[in-house]
Amino acid sequence: MSTLDRENLKAGDEVFVIYNNPHVPSVSNIRPAEIVQHPHNPNEVALFLNETFHVIEDDDALFTSQESAEEAYQELIDENSFF
Q1: How confident is the model at residue 59 (pLDDT cuts 50, 70, 90)?
Q2: In the chain, is it the N or the C terminus that has fewer CB atoms within a 10 Å radius of its CB?
Q3: pLDDT tens across 13-49, in order?
Q4: Distance between CA 83 and CA 71 in Å, rounded?
């Protein structure tokens, strides 16, 4: 699984995230997103996902490919499986 280091992100990078639906917490999707210049802080970058800017937090996992995100998602599901 290949995640990106927050310190190495630059505007224009394409990333993939595991996005939890805020309306249905049990639903997650892998979504493409773009790293963009932060709209209010020119010294920072932000995540542009679903037509919205998001501050990139230290615990956000940003993946280099959809395959890496899918692998991480499967590992997460397997670890939390109750079967």
Answers
A1: confident
A2: C
A3: 999 999 888 888 788 899 999 999 999 999 999 999 9
A4: 19
Encode the chain in three state secondary structure: CCECCHHHCCCCCEEEEEEECCCCCCCEEEEEEEEEECCCCCCCEEEEECCEEECCCCCCCCECCHHHHHHHHHHHHHHCCCC
Total-model pTM: 0.83
In what side-by-side order are the strands of the sheet with 52-54? 14-20, 28-37, 45-49, 52-54
CA 6, CA 60: separation in Å to the nearest integer? 9
